[in-house]
Amino acid sequence: MPVTIPVYQVDAFTLGPFSGNPAAVCPLDAWLDDDTMQSIAAENNLSETAFIVASENGYDLRWFTPAIEVDLCGHATLAAAYVVLNHLQPDLDVVTFATMSGSLVVSRDADRLSMD
To answer: Of 31, 54, 65, 85, which has the fewest beta carbons less than 10 angstroms from its beta carbon?
Structure first.
């Protein structure tokens, strides 16, 4: 059965469109198998595609390049935070991501995001 997955393309490290460092962000209800996420990342053909799944303490986050899964990606984390803080949960000012590299926290300060 086909599944519809939203895909956001976010330009990090910029104030305007068509600049900065682009990443795709795919919010999921539950994890897909690794091969499917890898295929989605390859089709997006950006340096990274971030996949997020809501959890008790924020979101779980994984990053895929068109070829492999990676352990850490700053600009795709900021892109994922942008999607959460502006589209999925705009009432939040802080989002915590659980990753294979540990916990990453992104905070909103007016129109800027900062990661700890």
So the answer is: 31
